[in-house]
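# step 3/5: fold
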Amino acid sequence: TCCVGTMTSSELHIEAGDLKTHLRGPLILGKLVVDSLGRKREGFGDEYAAIVEKLSTREMKSVVMCRWLKALKLCVSHLTRDSDLLVGATLRLDWTERDQEVVNAYVDYLSNLLSAQTCYLHSVLESLVKKFLLPSHTETSHLRTHWALQVILELVPTSPAFLLPLLRSLFPYKSRPVVIQEVYLRNLLHVSTYCPTLHEDIVHLAIHQMVRIDVEVPRVQVEEEEEEERIHFDVEMDEGSRDHSSHGDLLRPPAPILTACHSQTTVMSSCETAEKMDVMMKTLFEHLHTLCLPNGVLDLDRATKCLHICLRVFEQAILTTHASSHIQFLVFWITSLHQSFPDVFLNFLWDKFQALATPPVIRQAAAAYIASYVARAKFVSLSTARLCLSVMMQWIHQYLENCSSESLRPDEVIHGVFYSLCQAVFYVCVFRHKALLKEKDGLQLHTHTHTHTHTFIHAF
């Protein structure tokens, strides 16, 4: 009988085919690991180092890997903090591309390891999330990683709190290639499907990262005519029609930004940035579309939850960002899913505009969004447009009445918010005056608005 506890490192370097002869199964391997840990604590670390080296072998056959994983599962109670090199070697194994038996053994090993040694939770989660950065991995490989992650999330209730900072810190920097951005974002959004507690945080993280790319898409690449025809939110929907069975055709994300790139005058890096934005917009849109319109049919509860999530993200990441040109259209799209959603969005923007504690630049941004949304979104009804015009003009008149005679002079700093709302009124009138005039009292509305506009212009 071989005395396992006194095996030398040279005896560990055996061929896979000889394992059955030298080491008969996981039990013997498990005892070898335990004995090597004991001798390491006594100052003799050769056997421990040899095991770490063995597990670090990239050419390890699946049958050998499976046997080691089953052996390590039996001795997880001994894998304390001072065994970090050994555990680290197991976390670097290329298990996702192996046969199902190896995958099962690996997930089983992780489950047992974290049940006995929660100190490795961060390392295990990090090793799994890093696999989302590997575009060379197949979809099956990524799904196996998700399965392992889901098992851990169910096993350790506190794991979402450790997972979110990792998802944030490992998000590819904006200069990384588009394929890495797409693969990571797609996997990131998939995590939210089985970890709903992180859904809002994940959507916020995704949009926040996309905003950083959005502001770098050169706006000079988008000519005015192309912006009208392609970039503006173009959802064809009749006011009286709310049939969501055909949303796949009617509701589309903005046309690709890349179509606005002129290769003759645009450097390659600019087009790469636009391509990243296109791909990430499409990926996030597909996620939200699947969530809100499963099988092409509106799920009002899900859509309502998504709307409120997107409004909070809009407030934190989009409204506060200057020169964001494209990411907001995902929020606009969600507001088109139900006839009550535009009112929710406009009330949100109006509340931000009216709040005196809100910085003036944010109030001005809210006014600009109200104007462009009411003027350009075709699903916003005329009645809503009229109501918005009425509310805005009431605010403007109230502002004028509250101004002292000394302050009634042009001053962009003092009256910047006032000017922005006046501009919003003008913008809505320019784009929707024809439709408004066709209503029964359209002429009266036109005269009323014209009178107010004349007052605004001559106020300062």
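# step 4/5: annotate
Confidence is low (pLDDT under 50) at residues 1-23, 222-226, 228-268.
# step 5/5: archive (pending)
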